[in-house]
Structures are given as structure tokens and as C-alpha cells.
Specification:
mainly beta
């Protein structure tokens, strides 16, 4: 998927549920991805990944979630900015940040690593 701004139509959400999501920077280390779902959720299934190629960086991937995010037992890359809660299920690892405005970040045997700039 090319760098850019991707918006889910209201009340749409984003889900990584069937295949991995590959983000390619085309050799541009400043390439950025912004995924906005202003009124809904982000769901990532267990065993699925966000794969970064051709210079893509986790620090340049942003997931703006209008309500809650749930990440299954997988490797997830990028920064989740959720209005409500974020749940990392057992075994989930995040190369990025998980931030909420009004509710909790729930961790269950997880690793969260600050992404390299």
C-alpha cells in the first residue's frame, strides 16, 4: 500500500482480518501513512501483521481510531491513537505507541517497543 491518507467512511472501520497489510515506502524514509476511522474501530486478527518494506518506518504509521482498537496475538507496527480503549491480546507485540484519550490501554503478556525515528 502506498503512503498517504486513508479514511474509513462513517461509520466504517478498518480490520486486518484475512491477510497481512504491507506498506511500502518506495525508498522514501519520510513516507507516512495515516489511517483514520473517526467514528469506529480498528481490529487486527491474531497471526496477521503490518509489514514494512522499502524503507517504511513504524514511526511514520498512524492509526487514528474514533473509539476502540483491538490487536490480536501478532506483530503490529505503527502508532495507535484511540479515543476510547486499546486492548492488546495475549502475545501481541507493537513496534510503535498505544495512546488513548479517555479509557485504558489493556496489556496481556505484551511487548511494546518505541519505534526508531
Amino acid at each position: 500500500m502506498a503512503p498517504g491518507l486513508y479514511k474509513a467512511p462513517a461509520p466504517g472501520s478498518f480490520a486486518i482480518s484475512n491477510v497481512d497489510l504491507t506498506l511500502g515506502a518506495r525508498g522514501n524514509s519520510s513516507a507516512a501513512w495515516i489511517f483514520q476511522m473517526p467514528s469506529s474501530t480498528l481490529t487486527v486478527g491474531s497471526g496477521l501483521q503490518v509489514i514494512l518494506i522499502n524503507g517504511a518506518k513504524a514511526s511514520n504509521v498512524f492509526w487514528q481510531v474514533g473509539s476502540s482498537a483491538t490487536v490480536g496475538g501478532t506483530l503490529f507496527r505503527g502508532n495507535i491513537l484511540a479515543s476510547a480503549s486499546i486492548t492488546l491480546q495475549t502475545g501481541a507485540a507493537v513496534d510503535g505507541r498505544v495512546l488513548t484519550q479517555v479509557a485504558a490501554v489493556t496489556l496481556v503478556t505484551n511487548t511494546v517497543t518505541k519505534p526508531l525515528p
